[in-house]
Amino acid sequence: xxxxxxxxNATTRVDEEVVQAMLPxxxxxxxxxSSLHSFGNQVGMALKKARQSVQRLLGxxxxxxxxxxxxxxxxxxxxxxxxxxxxxxxxxxxxTVVEHPAILSLCDHxxxxxxxxxxxxxDKKGRLDLAEYxxxxxxxxxxxxxxxxxxxxxxxxxxxxxxxxADDAGIMFHTxxxxxxxxxxxxxxxxxxxMLSLSGHKLHAPKGVGVLYLRRGTRFRPxxxxxxQERGRRAGTENSASIVGLGVxxxxxxxxxxxxxxxxxxxxxxxxxxxxxxxxxxxxxxxxDNRLPNTANIAFEYIEGEAILLLLNKVGIxxxxxxxxxxxxxxxxxxxxxxxxxxxxxxxxxxxxLSRYTTEEQIDYVxxxxxxxxxxxxxxxxxxxxxxxxxxxxxxFAPVYA
Amino acid sequence: MWDYSEKVKEHFYNPKxxxxxxxxxxxxxxxxxxxxxxxxxxxxVDPSTDVILDAGxxxxxxxxxxxxxxxxxxxxxxxxxDQALKISNQDIADFLDxxxxxxxxxxxxxxxxxxxxxxxxRGETLEDDHEEGALVCKCFAVxxxxxxxxxxxxxxxxxxxVTNYTKAGGGCSSCHEGIERLxxxxxxxxxxxxxxxxxxxxxxxxxAKASPVPLQAPQPAPAAQxxxxxxxxxxxxxxxxxxxxxxxxxxxxxxxLDVESKNIYVKLTGACTGCQMASMTLSGIQQRLIEExxxxxxxxxxxxxxxxxxxxx
Lengths: 402, 313
What we know:
The complex is a heterodimer. By secondary structure, chain A is an alpha/beta fold.
């Protein structure tokens, strides 16, 4: 069997139809879409088509609400910095403790510059308290930025309702929907969401292209100024091949939406049930009843995530972990810590994220391979003895250097 | 994914001496769950000869933590306790053909477990004098705790000084923002305000201008208060003294051999010998000496015994 890729929340394989659609734009269709001549003109038409495909996937009212960027992070930064620039009298931001670094690092940086940043807390299942949120909505808030789906656990936030609450209070609402687009049906025209970020490479388009959805009428200040590309809202020559690719990927995502929410979900549930039935002292993190259909995040207690990943990799399975060691930091994932997952489990959390390419045969292979790997590492662990955790693990292990 | 050597992979996939040793008479526990790294080393030592007969490990940790534990047990079996204690964390890393900078703490953990186990065998108690922070400089593997402590102990106020004392920031320079942030906080704590250096190019030009003599001058004009030879040597020794703790932290050291006009002959010892960062260390030492003495000096490393004997004459 070929290697099994279960790390689709990190990035996805580019769809073959997407690749084929892109190829002419490197060779015969190389023109600058801004040019008047036929070389450029045709590219301009292709970009318009791609814009409409993305519009349909998001359920946006106008195609001019789609602004192409270089990535999800750029869309996030553009949205938040625009809100601050357009409303200089407002000095507060609201976000959550479990956002992606694309939002959190920016907010931390803005806090150093004197802005007030409120980070909404989550409970043990990664859910927000909307009463806490409602109490923070006041005239000093420039923007609320809340992710649609969490990248580590797949847990969904009620962004449509939160956007309505913000809009009612006269506050802009942005959502980082990088993980949700293509997996969750969307109808932005009927929502109160002002801005939304997406990233092409999470939905089988290439890396290096993203979108900022910008509701018509939302006050906006560009991050990049220069040429008139994207109606002056994002200067810089368009990455035309990738934008064309993203357009086709959007069409394909819409076509597979049903499959994603039935077949992919079934395989994910099968994987999860299969592993949990065979491995003791393991549990699902996040909110199992309200999450993306493709994501399973399982915490394996008393062992460390990177070691699990290395052994999985050896048997041809690709996944990812919230352990500190995979990122080179000392703390395990901020998402795991925010949900108050104990250290014994947070370091051993492993994320399996499926795609429409995942097969039943692959899932059955993973269900067979995981339990012996967990058992092998537990045999090495000082916190484990025999068939369960070492007696009073915290007490018998007495480190001199901690 | 990390760039692990074949040796690290070998010791991770097929660890040697996994599990506790039966009838162990020396056990050392280090690390904690919160750090994501914990190691228990158990040894069976022959009380009459002090020879380590058997060694085993139990590790909660990443690939390199398990590999470092396995390597350590292989290295110490058959040694006497005193011989084993001579193994530094760098020796463990070398045994594994190197570790990524973010993972050097795994080898430190091995070294500490060994110390803890030996202390346990001898009935001594060890003080936890070790604190570790998030990595600031990835080129030279310097963490936040070390940068902060060095800023505090030496009242440092610029990124350049931090680089000279700790090596942090001396490589690709992408961590300078992080170092500045630590400086801002540490200076604020002692009631000072951090003043950033100008753009690199301008600062260097200004320095050259402000300097009383061109740096290349073979015979520098004496400073305002000329020093006697003895005063000058003592000053040099004081500078080396202040650098020494930083080197010793990495199990290295520096020794002053001779001073001959602008040439200062030193010998790097311990882990500094053959270290690929030795030239960085030397240029850091040279920079400090130039600043302290107010004149241009050249630090010349002396390695071979013949040369050092000559230099000592």
